[in-house]
Amino acid sequence: MSDTKNTLNNPIYPIMIAIGIAHLINDTMQSVVPAMFPLLERDLGLSFTELGIISFVLNMFSSTLQPVVGFVSDKKPMPYALPIGMMSSFVGLLMLVLTEQYWLILVAVLFLGFGSAIFHPEGSRVSFMSAGNKRGLAQSIYQVGGNSGQALAPLISAFILDVYGQHGAAIVLLLTAIGIAILLKISRWYMQQLEAEKLSKQKKKILISSLPPLTKKQVGIALTLLLVIIFARSFYTTNITNFYVFYLMDHYDMNIRMGQVFIFIFMAFGVIGTFFGGSLSDRIGRKNVIILSVVGPLPFCLLLPYMSVWVALIFLIIIGTLIMISFSVTVVYAQELVPTKIGTMAGLTTGFAFGMGAIGAVVIGFLLDYIGIENTIKIVSVLPIMLVVAFFLPKDKVEKAA
Fold first, then answer.
1. What angle, rounded to 10 degrees, do the helices at 256-284 and 244-251 form?
2. Pick from 38, 161, 187, 181: which is nearest to 93 by CA?
3. What are φ and ψ of residue 205, in 5° steps?
């Protein structure tokens, strides 16, 4: 019995790190799409609305499928779905490299969205299985991988796509092959874990929640509040990562390369925030970290459009660090609200984030076309006010180290 307890409580760091690296590769492939936006707008003459539709198709398809994949994997885990999902993304990226027709770009992002939909719930499950008593840390390592992949997008745009054009995205295909190999190894470990559970007649792992007992109604309200937070955060960060570069070019007369460096800095500090957020939540509680991610960046979000260029860079650093500090924490918080549905909650929260990013891309693209860049950025800067609903979330207990 003690061996079983030790196995459950001890983190398995090699798997934690490996799934984080796979997440980095997966999200690097996804991030190639928004990284291509300045290029597609310049070379193919696409409107902001058409760019928004590309992002919508990618993220909404993934968003819709993720909770379904999570629900199915809660009933029947699918270890080898992970490399299969990345193979789908490989096909999508290859199509993206080879085509210059708009409708084929949309088909390509469907393959990318399908791969992402499979990867995220199952990847989150692997992170949970390897976490032991370090759930916040494990989820942070997993999310840091993904956010790092997304942060590479502006660098890919500035130093690869801007130099080699659309075909420069082929470089990412090499990373994809590495990712498939890593996921094959992880899938074998995943399968061994499932077989070990069967042999020992253990029930599948169920999360021990740090939240107090809640009624179904209270859980429903808490989940709704959490989704409002994810909506506002996703909508706002989509605006920065996909379209703020156009504001930098228009308002501050920047070139594409320098503008993408600004976006990279925002996203890089978001990675730092994500990493520290998970481990911090293990110490001070999930709700406290979520509130910190609301109160900290709010004034900077509101003032960002009115700052000079170098003050704006400082604000981007602060916003990126603080608004993303709760990224992994919201996933763990949702899992603790419904501790018997680990995959479903991971799929719901990450899928909803993708979906809101998808809707945000279309809405922001439409606004950019019809009311202009400056007015759109000012309107979106007010959106983080919605994050204050975090104060109404149920308070969790802080686990004390043994």
1. 130
2. 161
3. -60, 135
